[in-house]
Amino acid sequence: MPEGPSIVILKEEAAGFAGRTVRHVHGNSREPIQRMAGQRVLGVHSWGKHFLVRFEGFNLRVHLMLYGSYRINERRDVAPRVGLEFEDGSELNFYACSVKFIEGPLDAAYDWTADVMNDAWDPAQARRKLRARPQALAADALLDQQVFAGVGNIIKNEVLHRIRVHPESRVGALPPRKLGELVTQAREYSFDFLHWKKAYVLRQHYQVHTRTVCPRDGHRLAYRKHLGVAKRRAFFCEHCQRLYPRE
After folding, report:
1. Is residue 242 part of a domain?
2. Residue 8's pLDDT is what?
3. What is the pLDDT of residues 116-127, one digit of tens each?
4. Domain boundary residue among 90, 110, 130?
5. Global pTM?
6. Are 44 and 18 in contact, with CB atoms under 8 Å apart?
7. Which of 97, 113, 140, 201 is the most exposed, fewest CB within 10 Å of its CB?
């Protein structure tokens, strides 16, 4: 599943479509996608894992889900969920994704301060939300899009290893310093992810995600196929990632 940094890259790659008029719409979505035909793109945006195309009075929201993808000025051999063709011959196509429309201004639909990649990100608000979820596992808290919009499973695993916290630690049991590290690194690692992905070296920087040995202490990593409420894969070191509270 593409995480927030990947959607930021998509937003940057699609920025040139702003100001262009949609000439034709194609795709197999059940949404009324033809409403975009003849409309001018006012801007492209991202919030967490959502890619947003803004029109007058409404917005297209694309969520790439687990296996979604996109193509700019080219097509795959399969039908897109939605494709936008512009007057200058350029096009933007999305595959195997969720497509929805959001009516009205985006500011009414999204809390930009919850997006770890956004300039409006508010770490103090994230800490307040976490303190209201004391029984949540640290792994689940990081994947909560209302707290950390854009954080996905890779970022979750890497952040917890970076701050030496076991994924099954309870949020309410984390010392204030560790809670602060969790909030800080959710954003900092996301920007590291963005930098590495743009340089095509992201996988080379994985410390625990899909790895078998902890690079910090040499111990074999633990693996859980379905951890927490989110039921996502977890890779972690039981030797150097402390479980709070330790039983």
Report:
1. no
2. 97
3. 999 999 999 999
4. 110
5. 0.93
6. yes
7. 201
